[in-house]
Amino acid sequence: MSVIDTFNGALILNQRVFGEMRDAPDGVRRGFLIILLVGILVGAIQSASALISSGNPDQTVEAFIVSYREAIEQQRQTATTPEQREVLQLFEESADEMAAMVRELVTLPTILPRPISLFLQALGQTVSRPLEYLSDMLLAVILTHIAARQLGGQGGIRAMVAVGSLSVAPHALDALTFIPVLNLPISIIAWGWGLIVLITGTAVVHRLDTGKATLAVLLYPSLLIILGILLSCILLIGLISLSAGLGA
C-alpha cells in the first residue's frame, strides 16, 4: 500500500489500513514517512506565508494594528469601571506609537543580508515542524501504550508507534492556519481528528473496545492536567499565605 493510500485510509479510519500498519514489518518507517510529509507540507506553507509577511513590513504592521484594535474592542465590551475605560482609551491612543515600534522591529538590520536571513528562518521552520509532530506523537503513544497495557491490551510498542504515527495525518490541515479567521477552528478540528485516529489505532493495536481505547488515550493526559491544577492551587495558596504573613 502506498503512503498516499495509507494517509487517506487513516483519515477515513479504515480498519484495514490500521491493521496493515500494525502487522507490517516496515510500519514504523512508513509512519515516520507520513509524519515527515505532513510536517514538510505544513512547515513549507507556513514558512512561505511568514516569508511573504516579513518581506512586506507594511503588511506586518497592518496585521498587528488590526489585532491590537480587536483586542482593545474585546476588552472594552467587558470594561465595567471608569478606570478600566480610561486605561483602554490610553491603549487606543497609543496605537500609532505601537505601530512605529513594530515597524522598527521588523526592519532591524541583520547579520546576514535580509533575504538570506529570511530564507534560513523559513528553512528552519520547515525542518523543525516534522520534528515537532514526531515528538508530540511519541509522547502521546508512549503514555497511551502504558495505559492500554494496564487495561489489558496485548499490542507491542513497535506496532503502537507505527499506527500512532497515523494520528499526525489530520494535521495536514495545519497548513491552513496561516489564515487568521481559520486558525482556531482548523487547529481544533485537526487536534480532534487526530485524537479519533489515535483512539481507533489503539483499539486495533491492543485489540480493545472503543471505550477502553478512549480511556487509554485520555488517562494519563487527564491525570497530568489534574496534577497540574492541584500543584497550581497549592502554589497559589502558598503565595497567599506568604503574602498574608508578610503583611502581618
UniProtKB/TrEMBL annotation:
Residues 15-230 form the Yip1 domain. The keyword ATP-binding does not apply. It holds the Pfam family Yip1. Its main location: membrane. It is found in: Membrane. The keyword Transmembrane helix applies. It comes from the Bacteria. It is a multi-pass membrane protein. This is Yip1 domain-containing protein.
